[in-house]
Amino acid sequence: MKVPLSEHHGDRNAPQHNAGVNFRRATMIVPAVILLAAIPLWLLVVSSPVQPQDYPPARLMEDENGSPEDTVLGAAVAAAAVPVVREKKCDVFVGKWVYRPDALTYYTNETCYAISDQQNCMKFGRPDMEFLKWRWEPDGCELPPFNAAEFAEMARGKSIAFVGDSLGRNHMQSLLCLLSSVDQPEDISLRYTTDYNFKRWYLPKHNLTLGTFWAPFLVRTTDARGGQTLNGILTLHLDEPHPSWSAEISAFDYVIVSAGQWFFRPLIYYRNGRLLGCSACGQDNVTEVSRFQAYQAALRTTLRAITGRKGREGSGGGGTTFLRTFSPAHFEHGDWTDGGSCPRTRPFGSDEKKLEGYDLEFYVAQVEEFLEAERQARADGSKIRLLDTTRAMLLRPDGHPNRQCNWPKSNVGRADCVHWCLPGPIDTWNELLFYVMKSDRGGKFAQRKLQNLRS
């Protein structure tokens, strides 16, 4: 189990100044002697290890652009050339998976009853447990383990919403299981709806509420004629937030947005009530629109609505929005509909798998919209942070349920290489969430990453 690095502090010894006295007249000898006698006492006081509380540690940090950023200690320290400690700001989202044979899980399917059968890999016979022995290790620093007691205390009296597709629900179930060691979650969903896609949980000891809002396209959707089918064409209104979440989201302190997987199906797009085009719709005289551009437009609408509303009406100083980046699937020898599976039993090495193709396109769209939303959030008095899980999860083809899950009858025999086993690598999402919430960092390196991807 990893532990946080200790905080480094610089030399706290106070600066010392040399004093000289110029005796110009014999009549000043006595006062000068008195003054010289007082100097050692003054030096003893100012060089004492006990410092005022607002005295800053000497350190040199790197800002998000990689340039040095001095902590000002005053001209006296600079003149004395006091050595400083270099503290590099670490991007916890860049790193590798390290095997820890003695690693323990935070929970099991026996200690957490909130695990859905679709992600309960232990219950449904996954033969290997080695996938639970890997820990995410950022380059150049440590990711602290998830501390359930501290997280629950930070979130006491607050509410957390997960907006998007079923991976958001997967994420919430992981968080519920992690928190169940300090508080027993109560399913209060029926107070709000009978729809399984909209769940609410309450942790009574901490007055903490968690909720999921099913909106796989984020924006308002119109079903195909005859109802929604696997390949039926849906209509998305790219400039209208989905009412399933937009009507209630102002009541939540933290909102975690995640979506993307559903944009692979045939879709028709509208904006301002007018037909914009479609993706893979097969209709004549309809402009083909990139699904990535459509996704980016839907994400822009969503983030503007959430950060804007939270800035005006939300509690907790405007609330905080988290954008969790795209979670890659790992199908091999086919996809979900034609026999594909994910049989691997260990992670990829950091140099074995490259972010490319549609995974890259979705990721770039998200980072671009995050940077724009971050600028808008500052003006609205709210906050948005990037939960950049894409790189870490790209390397975990071994973490999916594959065929060790209990699908509804319509999906029997299909492998799940999209969602994540519980417990499993997805618990790292909440280690990262805990880190970002506690440090109030998330997105500091986004601009640099985007520039690197474009170069």
TrEMBL record:
Topology with respect to the bilayer: Single-pass membrane protein
UniProt-annotated location(s): Membrane
Residues covered by the Trichome birefringence-like N-terminal domain: 88-142
One cellular-component annotation, GO: membrane
Major localization class: membrane
InterPro entries: TBL (IPR029962), TBL_C (IPR026057), TBL_N (IPR025846)
Domain of life: Eukaryota
Keywords from the UniProt entry: Membrane, Signal-anchor, Transmembrane, Transmembrane helix
Trichome birefringence-like C-terminal domain ranges (all copies): 143-434
Family: Belongs to the PC-esterase family. TBL subfamily.
Entry protein name: Uncharacterized protein
